[in-house]
Write a structure and sequence with these properties.
Blueprint lengths: L25 E4 L60 H4 L1 E2 L10 H15 L5 H19 L6 E4 L2 H9 L9 E4 L10 H4 L7 E5 L8 H7 L4 E7 L11 H11 L2 E5 L18 E5 L11 E5 L1 H4 L43 H17 L1 H21 L16 E4 L13 H12 L2 E2 L1 E3 L2 E5 L6 H19 L1
Parallel strand pairs: 1-5, 2-11, 4-5, 4-6, 6-7, 7-8
Antiparallel strand pairs: 3-9, 8-9, 10-13, 12-13
The structure holds pyridoxal-5'-phosphate.
Amino acid sequence: MGPRVGADASPRHASGGPERRIYGSIIWYTDILTTPLESGEFPRRGLALPRASANKEAPISSLAAASPQHHPADTPARRVRLAGSDEFPVVERGTYLNICESTALSRRVRGAADEFLDHVMYARGTRDVRQQHVDGARHKFARLIGTDAADIAIVKNVSEGLNAVATAIPWRAGDNVVLCASLEHPNNVLPWLHLARLGVEMRIVEPVEGAIEPAAMVAAMDGRTRVVTCASVTFAPGLRADLGAIGRACRSRDVLFLVDAVQSAGILSLDVAGDHIDALVTSTAKGLLGLYGCGFLYCRPEWAERLTPAYLSRPAVELPPERYSEMTGLDVPMRAGARRFEVGSVDYASCYAVDASLSLLSEIGMPAIETHALALAGRLRTGMAEMGLAVPHRAFGPEASHIVTVGQLGAGGHGNTTDPLLVRLSDHLAAHDVVHTIRRGMLRFAFHLFNSDDDVDRVLELTREVVSRKAA
Ligand SMILES: Cc1ncc(COP(=O)(O)O)c(C=O)c1O
């Protein structure tokens, strides 16, 4: 049984020790080479982290840098979409390479959301029917990441899930959280910055070649580290983090490892047990192919027991339905597991939607989706590099994801680029209905099950037109 509301739920580290307050502290952590690594934990690499250069350039790849297995000649043709226009109308509209920004609805997912709207329009659906869809979504997502439904809370979005964890930790002044801030989405930086008022230090690790380097994350940890957090795939430049390496180090130090998985979920495999992840958050509004306003928070049961949510309402406490309106005292047991993080009613339309989209994903199968998306991304990446465009060097190795970025990280703001060639290319692609984004100076393309080699060909052909105009 968890802590009781109203009972003394004092945090583990609530008192004792010197009162060291570090208001507004942001520590740029640069000293990693002097911190010894445990033998055998990670291979020591030649790391050189410059001080506080938030947008360190990733090197430009050349074809020589690309490993041979990523050459298009070796990639089997993927002309067939794993789900086509009969399911995804967006395919008819143009070349949709923007799942990293926004979901694309399938007909069956739209139908599921409509079913809920009909339920409330015609007073058809009972509470039980609604709950079936919520539980269905919870179960299917749990299966997707290799855990049990009891470990999953329904949340509103990534931010809510991250904040739920950040505010549930029994912080003491002087504790710290380790993250590679310049590669995280702002929604996984601001919750930690906000803890400065409690004296919590944000320990910032520099990226290495545009990637989150596990050894650097580990080296930044010390005895006061409570949380290490990172994106499973960064929103730019779109590299995959070695979650297992970071997770292993966290587990051995009893540090909570929290993953923002929104850029992976539904496209790349996630394995919370295998990667020693303690908490993981995603929204349903990208690769999970659901709607906005809904997400999932996984919390490992052993950690849930140690966390005290900042918010509390009926879904988070042990109260049988027949006692719902009997609440007179405050001595109510909090639910065991992740469900203690659920707050009030959920977004039912979104739960119906993601219940349906998770069925679609499981019918096709995550291994097939991952292989498909990675192969298409690999072919586009190599094709872009062949035309002399800058592609992050690390994207040709194990950190490759379904996201392809072109340009220099930081050569522009959140949604623009200062590179005139990329501006022209982006305009040209948009004029030909290639839906893509610009992030932090880079052009960004992302693949999912409804894409095919035809989409890759289209982008490469349009790119060739712009590049050859420049050359002429
Ligand atoms: C890595 C990452 N985290 C979080 C978000 C969004 O967070 P939220 O679901 O809270 O809007 C995005 C994209 O929008 C993202 O790319």
